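worker-3 :: picked UMP-CMP kinase
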Amino acid sequence: MVDTPSLKPQVFFVLGGPGSGKGTQCAKMVEKYGFAHLSAGDLLREERDSGSETAALINQCIVEGKIVPVEITCQLLKKGMEKQGWAAKRFLIDGFPRNQDNYDGWSKVIGDSVDVPFILFMDADEDTMIARIIERSKTSGRNDDNIESLKKRFATFRNETMPIVDLYETMGKCRKINGLRGIEEVFADLETVFAGFI
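worker-3 :: tokens ->
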């Protein structure tokens, strides 16, 4: 039997700088429309705390604001998708692909076994994102929610992730959302963008 796109899981990558609202909006899509949500960062933080052989390497990358080797991230994403039930699912994957290496690694590991209709880019300025993260840091317990790590994370985002957003834009597969407004206003935009998929 030939695989048709409609039988493949649909994956929507959700990109945006730290604090742009990726996790918040993904949670709302899960709650209202039953999407499966995988956060590359959350999966990496779980693995880092698992005591596995890759834990120390992952922790070092996170603290330094660097990107974790793509093989590790792709395997964790694949495992996460399989755990949630691979077939006929709609997945929101936030914080991935973060650079060209991630993009190439995804193509190699997952490739055509999924359909990627478009990526979602949560657009927000750095000042707003920093203010949100400083607020979040009061309760998040994350060791990368501090100004030093943030500066590195923003530099990585500008230099490595934005070219991926631009790449999807040239393919006509990027949907830009203004992440600066209130949660409900942003969510209304998401509902419009996902109209054919919800």
